[in-house]
Amino acid sequence: MRLKCEYKTKEIPVGYNMLLVSLIKEALKKSDENYFNKLYKYDENIANKRSKNFTFAAYIKNYERAEEIFKVNDRVILNISSPDLEFMINLYNGLLKLSKFQYKTFELYKLKIDLIKEKKLATNEVIFKTLSPICIKNKNNYFMKIEDDKYIDELNYIANLVLKNYRGEGLRENLMFMPLDMKKVVVKEEIRGFKSKTNRKYLYVNSYSGTFKMKGNVKDLEDLYALGVGFKRNQGFGMIEVIG
Q1: Do residues 65 and 107 both lie within one domain?
Q2: What is the model's pTM?
Q3: Separation of alpha carbons 98 and 26, rounded Å
């Protein structure tokens, strides 16, 4: 299940992923606070950091960059994907209730929310394009280069974990990942915890955008198409679309 959410705004921060995470959280709270607490908290004081069953990607239509801000001449489009029906119903209902969302000094005004039909996968070998970049980390928490020897191993590791979290069963077959036209993208993220630990304003996330071929079990590919690929999917990474 996919949602396409369009917002009018004058400006948005260059590191906008956290703004969009806040929008998603606020929508879930508006829809059902108990559901939100179950998803994001173990108890009142402890955050539930377990990965969630969704991914998202944003597209800014017609903008100009002014230092740390994008001045938006048209609109911001937020695409969200999840195979989790309960999550998507709560999110959809909450987004409908939020006609205006404020994050720090930034204001977003809802234009429309549409349900988008997913494509059906019929084969075990699919060509995808990224809607948001794919981020892969190693066991030492370092962002990996796509040419690293262990890149595909770590991609399989996180895909297995994401599928286990969602359906209780990991990968049925190892994934084969073949980059076709992938380019490095460095994404700036302004995360409160990172700033307080390092005294640095931004975390720079090395990731990759473009097209790639993936081969594996059809059900695994179908679920990863909906859940996203790689790390930080719930923070605006790893959303993919079928192109062949």
Answers
A1: yes
A2: 0.93
A3: 8
